[in-house]
């Protein structure tokens, strides 16, 4: 393969996404030290982190509007720069109130990146599935590296130093992106911003049957992803009886498979179709979560657990084909704000995964909670199958 400019753009967009994810994921392993520092409960810190993820989701749509108005390069640089600044502010928080405020700022800054970068890459590549798959793999890469690195730094130098890892990654990425990515022309430089937020056009876009159908698929995927990212280590430790060290190792393996399969499923979706590839990922989810539930209830042993974790990692690569499906449905003029809008819609709704699965685990146990995730994947598979078998046209 001859290295071309678009490959540089893809690599740097992926690094930028990794940088914004590192800043957010570095906080989680430092929660015990943060609670001690400020004399608060885990629930209080959890509320601050929930606020961060909520503002991240809410920033997706405005980021697309800003990309159309000012050009994707400027918005991506703003996202990475804001991530670095917010990480420094978070590390310097003098109180829990300030910590919560700066966590929300971090969510907004990081949230400016993904939708704009996806639109930018769609304009660079014909095989959009593969490009989106490589780009989205930046998230699992951060999930693999950031938590253990932050925990190590935090244990030696304190939680504030661990939080600063976000800035340590974002600053060089900002410099590289500014140096190597060319300026991009805005698609709608003269359109008043207020027109982009008018309710009528937004409701029309979201109510299109094909968009509504794809948003439903993405919501099921996001619900499952959020719950898995929140509770897989706990399920492995409490539900299946593995040690905390082995549970953490398998959680890292989950991120490794998740990240490694994203480019593959994206590339396959360019060849055999978005829906067929999404069906593969949903099928893997049904089998993977089912295997984990069976292991927890029937004590099937470590090999079945490892296989289940691997299949769950493959299942969570649904993002590459489903997000590519959105880009196929949106016109060039709609992609910036349109993709941001649908991403906000499915991320905000899907964020309930942590709350629902946590509540079910408290009420009925971990096997039932993860059995629910298998059912969600089965519903996604049934939805895709019905569309293909009955020619529904979605």
UniProtKB/TrEMBL annotation:
How is it placed in the membrane, per its record?
A: Multi-pass membrane protein
Domain (Major facilitator superfamily (MFS) profile): give its ranges: 9-394
Subcellular localization, per the record?
Cell membrane
Please give the start and end residues of each transmembrane region: 75-92, 98-120, 132-153, 159-179, 238-257, 278-296, 302-320, 341-360, 366-386
Q: Which InterPro entries match?
A: MFS, MFS_dom, MFS_Efflux_Transporters, MFS_trans_sf
Q: Name one GO cellular component term.
A: plasma membrane
Enumerate the UniProt keywords alphabetically: Cell membrane, Membrane, Transmembrane, Transmembrane helix
- Tell me the Pfam families matching this sequence: MFS_1 (PF07690)
Keyword Membrane listed? The answer is yes
According to the UniProt entry, its GO molecular function terms are: transmembrane transporter activity
Q: From the Swiss-Prot or TrEMBL record, give the protein name.
A: MFS transporter
């Amino acid at each position: 393969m001859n290295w071309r400019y678009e490959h540089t753009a893809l690599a740097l967009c992926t690094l930028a996404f990794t940088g914004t994810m590192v800043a957010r994921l570095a906080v989680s392993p430092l929660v015990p030290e943060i609670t001690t520092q400020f004399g608060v409960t885990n629930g209080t810190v959890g509320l601050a982190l929930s606020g961060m993820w909520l503002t991240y989701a809410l920033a997706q749509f405005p980021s697309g509007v800003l990309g159309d108005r000012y050009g994707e390069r400027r918005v991506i640089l703003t996202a990475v720069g804001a991530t670095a600044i917010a990480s420094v502010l978070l590390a310097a928080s003098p109180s829990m109130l300030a910590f919560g405020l700066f966590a929300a700022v971090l969510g907004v800054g990081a949230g400016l990146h993904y939708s704009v970068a996806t639109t930018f890459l769609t304009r660079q590549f014909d095989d959009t599935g593969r490009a989106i798959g490589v780009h989205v793999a930046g998230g699992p890469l951060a999930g693999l590296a950031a938590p253990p690195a932050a925990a190590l730094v935090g244990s030696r130098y304190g939680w504030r130093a661990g939080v600063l890892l976000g800035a340590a990654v974002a600053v060089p990425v900002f410099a590289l992106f500014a140096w190597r990515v060319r300026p991009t022309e805005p698609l709608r430089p003269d359109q008043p911003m207020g027109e982009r937020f008018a309710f009528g056009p937004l409701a029309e876009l979201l109510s299109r049957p094909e968009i509504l159908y794809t948003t439903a698929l993405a919501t099921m995927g996001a619900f499952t992803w959020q719950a898995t990212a929140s509770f897989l280590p706990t399920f492995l430790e409490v539900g299946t009886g593995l040690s905390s060290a082995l549970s953490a190792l398998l959680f890292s393996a989950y991120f490794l498979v998740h990240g490694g399969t994203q480019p593959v499923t994206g590339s396959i979706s360019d060849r055999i179709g978005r829906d067929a590839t999404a069906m593969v990922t949903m099928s893997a989810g049904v089998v993977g979560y089912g295997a984990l539930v069976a292991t927890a209830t029937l004590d099937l042993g470590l090999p079945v657990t490892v296989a289940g974790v691997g299949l769950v990692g493959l299942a969570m690569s649904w993002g590459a084909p489903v997000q590519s499906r959105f880009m196929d449905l949106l016109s060039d003029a709609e992609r910036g704000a349109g993709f941001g809008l649908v991403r906000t819609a499915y991320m905000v709704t899907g964020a309930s995964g942590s709350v629902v699965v946590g509540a079910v685990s408290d009420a009925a146990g971990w096997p039932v909670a993860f059995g629910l995730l298998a059912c969600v994947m089965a519903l996604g598979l049934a939805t895709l199958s019905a569309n293909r078998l009955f020619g529904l046209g979605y």
